[in-house]
Amino acid sequence: MCPKLEIDVKKLRENTRIVCKMCHDKNIDVAMVTKSYCAIESVVEALSKESIDYIADSRIDNLKNLNHIRLPKILLRIPMISEVDEVVKYSDISFNSELETIRRLNEVAIGQNKIHKIAVMVDLGDLREGFFNVEELLAAIDEVVKMENIKIIGLATNLTCYGAIIPSKENLQRLVDLAKSIEDDYRIKLDFISGGNSSSLYLLDKDEMPDGITNLRPGESIALGRETAYGNPIKGCYQDAFKLVCEIVELKDKPSQPIGEIGVDAFGNKPEYVDRGIRRRAILAIGKQDIDITSLEPMDKAIEILGASSDHMILDITDSSTNYLIGDKVEFLLGYGGLMSASTSKYVEKSIIYEKVSAAY
């Protein structure tokens, strides 16, 4: 059935092996982030056979489904107070930036007779989550270290995801220095200093990762085979472990410019068109309700994506050397947004390829 997301587990395992080696060679643990493909159990199970150290996800439901995998689980998204019971039950470590939430986690951990580990988030300038003011951070830690069932294991930061701030030797060194200061002041050991996600990997190649960073959280680098600071492919990794396959439902020669007064489309946008004469157009059975079409790249480089409605994607195939027919398939590589939306969509079938055998999900 189409549309479908093809997932090549063999390629993903190779990507995982390469990224883990990059990190482990620098004495950095790997928390593999599984959210981009909704933590499909069989895929995570296969990848967990490589040398990853943690499984990390933003959704507690995903971690719940992975409870049987014997690796520590990290909840990446700041916990909601409404979910603290499940956070303590299904995650070994959670990332936190609000003292009131940590208080509630402590209460729940006491009730569950568990020690819940936390990494405190520090904002180094990307302006997403984390303590930005050092005095506020230290005041929070002053209270947290006294809690019975909460253990601070370290600090973590996030870069590039919101403000697009690139990790550097300088800003990550600030995280390391802050951790050392906290260790000295509170006489505690912080073994978990997490220096970001796939955007931090390029520092390993440049040998500019500060000593003291002990953990990274690669997700896109494993899924799509590239670092995300500059978008460069990682040597030896596959960029096509995930492919979107769609079916052609209409082929017609039509003008390149719509005829009549142009208003707004179904999504409230007023499009603009260039008159290129009559062009060969293909319509695929997939649309904006199914996927983020701005994050797709046709594998046939002669194809141009013209746009989409909620149910149809329109292609210009005029320059392609392939003689496409009704029912033929068109394949796409996916960006991060495309992968997330395809994985989340119930309208996109997931086809998992193990060596030569595939299984629908």
Automatic annotation (TrEMBL):
Coiled-coil residue spans: none
UniProt superkingdom: Bacteria
GO molecular function, one term: alanine racemase activity
The protein's required cofactors: pyridoxal 5'-phosphate
Family annotation (Pfam families): Ala_racemase_N
Gene Ontology annotations for the cellular component aspect, listed alphabetically: cytosol
This protein's record includes keyword Isomerase: yes
Assigned keywords, A-Z: Isomerase, Pyridoxal phosphate
Protein's recorded name: Alanine/ornithine racemase family PLP-dependent enzyme
Organism name: Romboutsia weinsteinii
